[in-house]
Amino acid sequence: MIGCLCLHGFTGAPWEVEPVVKKLKKNKDWLIYSPTLPGHGPGDDLKGATYKAWIYAADKACAELFKYCEKVYVVGFSMGGMLACYLSARYPVEKVVLLGAAAYYVNPPQLLKDFKIAAEARLKGAFDNEDPWYQFYSKKIQETPLTAVYEFTKAVKTVRPFVKEITIPSLIMQGELDGLVPVKSAEYLFENMGSREKRLYLYKDSRHYLCHGPDKKRVLDDLERFLKNENKPRIQGGNET
């Protein structure tokens, strides 16, 4: 059996990688696991969460999959992408996919553009509590405790050195309009991985939530083809075509 661990990002939840989970679950002989990291579940408090707890939870989830599966893939989004790097260096993972992985974070120029779009829409009354832009800024910018942000930075700094130890086939996926994780993060991962087989795909119309944005279908198709060895020829480091 093939197992696939899907890890969400900082302040997020499994819904961030839910489109990946749904697509891969169509493979009936695959076991897909998408855990909720400590402090991120309903009723949980990020103020009490620590970077060590996030790393431990990801480690434990990966170890559990290996108990039931002959092969294990890891897909990580944002901070989950960095945890995926750690797991790929520590365990005999077959393949790893990094979605907007936060080796570096906050792209100020794009973030300012996004804020302007959000502010203009807000003034026009375009937002309500269900609007994804409203939810995004409310959660990521306004409500996140500073203590949790500090733990996030420690998590990234702790697992970043493991990037060079990755030697397995790797797919790095990045939105060019990402206001939280800059393109240089993806470029850093691509340049520093020890993998002989590695790909970097950039999506020109996507922001941070690659699995929920305008390039969603291409992102999911590229991801599945990579995991199932069905990739079409692409230019390493090139834009999505």
From TrEMBL:
Keywords: Hydrolase
Pfam families documented for this protein: Hydrolase_4
MF terms in GO: hydrolase activity
Serine aminopeptidase S33 domain residues: 5-212
Lineage top rank: taxon: Bacteria
InterPro entries, sorted: AB_hydrolase_fold, AB_hydrolase_sf, Esterase_lipase, Hydrolase_4
UniProt keyword annotation of Hydrolase present: yes
UniProt-recorded name of the protein: Alpha/beta hydrolase
Organism of derivation: Thalassorhabdus alkalitolerans
